[in-house]
Write a structure and sequence with these properties.
It is a single chain. The protein is globular. The protein has a domain of 81 residues. The protein is 45% helix and 9% strand. The chain starts with a strand and ends in a 16-residue tail after the last helix. The strands form two sheets. It has a two-stranded parallel ribbon with strand order 1-2. The protein has a two-stranded antiparallel sheet with strand order 3-4. It has nine helices and four strands, in the order βαβαββααααααα. With 223 residues, it is mainly α.
Length: 223
């Protein structure tokens, strides 16, 4: 199952339709799955077995390397776009190792070396601080106001969510992309600076030391 986190379902739907998944694919407009499982970025995944037991916590998930990693950067792009692409290419490519681990679990179930017991799942899960709970409440309130009254009503609460949980990229990217996406166009993935929010994708990634620190790598992924 795949779940898109987007307060505006119409922005997520075209990507799902383009992918034409044969599995169940949902749109979570309230970020409920993020709250339940601890997703703080996309793409992330959890593994749940047939009994409904979590056997791997929220961690970055990918099963196919992006062609953009090696594709030539077109000439004539604005310097900011070139810098963003360059930083994005520094994000660790975990696809091969993640896919192999996932296939091993599918084939071997609880006997897989990659399946965790409940204690291991808890120990490996991201910490849950009081400020993170407050950030979730502010983000959810902002999302509800966005649905009822538009993005201007959501901004103060989303800004607060960003300050309370600065490592949560889903909160940031949701707000940024709503500001930088041109009406009627697909979601803007560059999420550049605006005078509405303090950060931007490129600026905040550089602030944490670059794309190499952008994801929550599964414990089995080697450098």
């Amino acid at each position: 199952m795949t779940v898109a986190l987007d307060a505006n379902a119409d922005q997520a739907r075209p990507w799902i339709e383009a992918a034409q998944p044969t599995h169940r694919s949902l749109i979570d407009t309230k970020h409920v799955t993020g709250e339940l499982f601890g997703f703080n970025n996309v793409p992330m995944g959890v593994w749940i077995d047939e009994s409904g037991t979590l056997v791997r916590p929220a961690e970055s998930a990918s099963i196919e390397s992006s062609a953009l990693r090696t594709a030539p950067i077109p000439e004539g792009l604005p310097e900011g776009v070139r810098e963003l692409i360059g930083e994005a290419r520094q994000i660790p490519d975990i696809a091969g190792q993640y896919r192999a681990a996932l296939v091993d679990w599918i084939e071997n179930g609880s006997a897989s070396a990659f399946a965790m017991n409940p204690d291991e799942v808890i120990e490996s899960s991201l910490p849950r601080q009081q400020t993170h709970a407050e950030a979730a409440a502010n983000f959810e309130l902002g999302a509800e106001l966005y649905r009822r009254h538009g993005k201007e009503a959501a901004r103060p609460y989303w800004r607060t969510a960003h300050s309370l949980d600065p490592d949560n990229w889903t909160y940031k990217r949701q707000a940024w992309t709503l500001e930088t996406t041109v009406e009627g166009e697909p979601s803007d993935l560059f999420q550049g600076p605006t005078d509405i929010y303090d950060g931007s994708w490129l600026g905040d990634v550089r602030a944490i030391g670059g794309g190499g620190n952008y994801i929550t790598k599964p414990s089995f992924v080697s450098d």
